[in-house]
Amino acid sequence: MSQGTWTSTDGEKYSGEWKDGKKYGQGTFYYTDGSVYVGELKGGERNGQGTYTFPSGGKYVGEYKDGKKHGQGKFTYTDGTKFVGEWKDDKRNGQGTETYSDGGKYLGEYKDGKKHGQGTNTWSDGRKYVGKFKNGFPNGQGTETSPDGWRYIGGIQGWEETWSRKIHLY
Prior knowledge:
Blueprint: E1 2-7, E2 13-19, E3 22-30, E4 36-42, E5 45-53, E6 59-65, E7 68-76, E8 82-88, E9 91-99, E10 105-111, E11 114-122, E12 128-134, E13 137-145, E14 151-157, E15 168-169
Antiparallel strand pairs: 1-2, 2-3, 3-4, 4-5, 5-6, 6-7, 7-8, 8-9, 9-10, 10-11, 11-12, 12-13, 13-14, 14-15
């Protein structure tokens, strides 16, 4: 392997290790939109451990495969929300924990980037839902409780994106 720096005509820049004329090993890649990647590369793509910082301030620290988030990783959003867990093909997949900037939290399963499967969502006001999720929302058997003692155990279907009370109980 050799060391070197490359700059494209549009301003992208790579500084790091090379193998057979491709970015390979440890390096730093500066993108034209202001994003920066520091970490491992293979065959010219992000592969292995790395840190990707977005121009907005968001940051992903974790594993990559073929240029995509894949494996264990932590994503910190600009509002302070954090996700720690499993990724596959650039999407949340498997077990993960999302801690919201307002103090709420979700711990559970993800599929194709959405809450899906068994999980627990706790809101900052103390309400809690433990049960099944589908496509990002409570759906199926579960229990919802609130700090004032209100409790529902049963089926939930059709929650809207706003997590409003427009639900269908079965």
